[in-house]
Design goal:
A five-stranded mixed β-sheet has the order 11-12-13-14-15, with helices on one face. Strand 1 and strand 2 form a beta hairpin. Helices cover 31% and strands 22% of the residues.
Length: 624
């Protein structure tokens, strides 16, 4: 089924319903060993619509607290079909952050499941609890409910209607909501179809919750083009079993965060057999020549799309890399502007920079976000009108770039204190605001510095209140109650005063440049158990530590979900032990993880001997 340009001036549910009619019997969604045809998925959404009243003119979006999986997909389709907009919440976030988003939205309703019903209760006046995904699927196929499930709602949506909010980090200490209209989301999907020719023969991986703004392109890219959306439980399974899953599901299009994908490739014991995988999409973080060469070594038939995108402007530039593309740059450019997005580089006075100069990336388009939810001043400061075109606006991204002579854009980083951490946009000032709310902290400054893998990691410099000891663990635990784990600094530096510049400002260049000064005493001596010793070595390697005690908490020593996935992947590679990622959160010490590993090995019959696999040759080492 074609995707004519005129479709952009419609609505998301109108396009989905047309696809559902055209591809009624084809698979639309696969999750937890269940499969929905397009007819099934459309009927499931129609059944949920009956729980939602028609929206008022000024109705706030509906909250979704469902987590990654089929229910979230069904619920967001139902919300759109009812004429409402949605905000997907991530249950992995602390309750305080969920409450802050819910308060900012002003939502009257939250859709949830039994697993998260207690957490949803305080977020909105009405809690709509969905049955299990399998129960909904059975209901959609029930002859007695067939008429109700087949009845299509008629919301009368316009292209300018609000479709969703995506919350990102904000400098005021609370997250801000980026509005996305039906026109904006349809345009992004139209570009996706144009660039990938996605259709019924494709199977697109869905790896993260829809609260992750970039997940929109996977969901709509599949369901508005007749492809199959396949859910992978990343937080539970990590990347140790990803290659097997990609092969079993015959995934053709994959969109992982670059840092996550890089670690997956590094931990592969041998080139995976993935003949179906034809393209990987990477955006949100720098991509290096080394990454491309390693991927082409492991997946020689797979292309790469490196993209520049943001929640406010969607995709802005694209660089397509094939197996025979000559890579001249150590940092891969983000390519040329995509259709309907004009890019310019402006200096501090708003004038174009000279050829080869560095300036702020400014995008002009008719397909931008309407702005920030209930923040007109912030919207006006970032989105400017365009003379001569009342339908277009100009968005100032806050990113710096430089055009090469051939017209390719090189991304050079943020203008302000925002950085990308593991694919999430983080405002350093929000973390500082959260830190100084803690009773133990008198003042704080947070910077991002390159880590061992050249990716930015967060460093916090703190001046503590009188009577408090310089200890990382209590601060990490306190922050974990109010911010997501990707906003918790990896390193804490305790100072008597924050360094200042001659003008009286915090000297951020002086922060995060020295090694930790105080020694660390490992908690719990390691036993003679060889598995414990091996796990301790893995943890030290992953966290960059010299030692770790058997009873020390992995997350208190600087671990996060991405590094946890590395540990689990190393266990799979070195010991042939397939341990779910979620078990490390339950057993976060060397001692407890060894018990979990022994139990997993007993279930699978794996040997516990340290038997590391032969690593794949690094494509760069042969050229050095």
């Amino acid at each position: 089924m074609d995707f004519p340009r005129s479709t952009i001036e419609g609505s998301l549910p109108t396009r989905f319903e047309a696809i559902a009619r055209h591809y009624a019997e084809r698979p639309a969604l696969r999750c937890d060993r269940l499969e929905w045809s397009y007819r099934d998925l459309n009927r499931c959404a129609n059944l949920v619509v009956r729980s939602l009243p028609a929206p008022a003119a000024d109705a706030a979006p509906v909250l979704l607290l469902l987590g990654h999986g089929a229910l979230e997909i069904i619920a967001l389709l139902a919300v759109l079909k009812s004429g409402h907009a949605y905000v997907a919440l991530d249950p992995a976030n602390p309750q305080a952050r969920l409450a802050a988003i819910a308060a900012d939205v002003g939502a009257a309703r939250v859709i949830t499941s039994r697993a998260f019903a207690s957490r949803a209760a305080g977020l909105a006046m009405q809690v709509i609890e969905l049955p299990a995904a399998a129960t909904l699927l059975a209901a959609a196929r029930d002859a007695d409910l067939e008429r109700a499930a087949a009845r299509e709602p008629q919301p009368g949506l316009t292209p300018d209607a609000l479709a969703s909010l995506a919350y990102t980090s904000g400098s005021t200490g609370k997250p801000k909501g980026v509005m996305r209209s039906h026109r904006c989301s349809l345009h992004r999907c139209w570009l996706f179809r144009r660039d990938t020719a996605a259709g019924p023969g494709d199977r697109i991986a869905h790896m993260f919750s829809c609260s992750f703004a970039a997940a929109e392109v996977d969901v709509y890219g599949a369901l508005l083009n007749g492809a199959t959306l396949c859910c992978y439980a990343t937080r539970e399974r990590g990347f140790a079993s990803l290659a097997t899953w990609l092969a079993e599901e015959r995934i053709t299009l994959l969109h992982p965060p670059p840092a996550w994908w890089r670690l997956f490739l590094e931990h592969l014991a041998e080139p995976p057999d993935l003949p179906a995988l034809r393209r990987v999409f990477l955006s949100g973080e720098p991509l290096f020549r080394r990454d491309v060469e390693r991927m082409h070594c492991l997946l020689p038939g797979c292309g790469i799309d490196h993209r520049l995108s943001s929640s406010e402007a969607s995709i802005m530039a694209l660089y397509r890399i094939e197996a025979d593309t000559v890579i001249d740059d150590e940092v891969i450019p983000v390519g040329h502007p995509v259709p309907d997005k004009a890019l310019a580089l402006l200096d501090a006075d708003g004038s174009p920079v000279p050829p080869g100069g560095i300036g702020e990336i400014v995008v002009t388009s008719r397909y931008l976000s309407p702005g920030y939810w209930r923040q007109p001043e912030l919207t006006a400061s970032h989105f400017r009108p365009v003379a001569g075109d009342p339908c277009a606006r100009r968005f100032h991204t806050g990113d710096f770039g430089r055009f090469a002579p051939d017209g390719r854009l090189h991304y050079l980083g943020r203008r302000d204190e925002q950085v990308k951490i593991r694919g999430y946009r983080v405002d350093l000032r929000e973390i500082e605001a959260m830190l100084v709310r803690l009773e133990a902290v008198r003042s704080a400054a947070v910077v991002a510095r390159p880590g061992r893998d050249r990716q930015p990691v967060l460093h916090a410099a703190l001046v503590l209140a009188h009577g408090y000891c310089a200890q990382d663990a209590p601060l990490r635990a306190a922050l974990a109650q109010i911010v997501p784990d990707y906003m918790i600094p990896e390193r804490f530096e305790f100072l008597p005063t924050l360094p200042m510049t001659p003008t009286g400002k915090i000297d951020r260049m002086a922060l995060g440049t020295s090694a930790p000064a105080r020694p660390h005493t490992a908690v719990g001596a390691l036993t003679d158990d060889s598995l414990e010793a091996s796990i301790a070595r893995i943890v030290c390697d992953v966290l960059g530590l010299e030692q770790v005690g058997r009873d020390e908490d992995f997350f208190a020593r600087g671990g996060n979900s991405l590094r946890a996935a590395q540990v689990v992947a190393r266990l799979a590679r070195d010991h042939r032990i397939d341990l779910p990622l979620s078990r490390l959160f339950v057993a976060p010490t060397v001692a407890l993880l060894a018990i979990e590993a022994q139990a997993a090995a007993a279930r699978s019959g794996a040997a516990l001997a340290n038997n590391p696999a032969v690593p794949i040759p690094d494509p760069l080492r042969s050229s050095v």
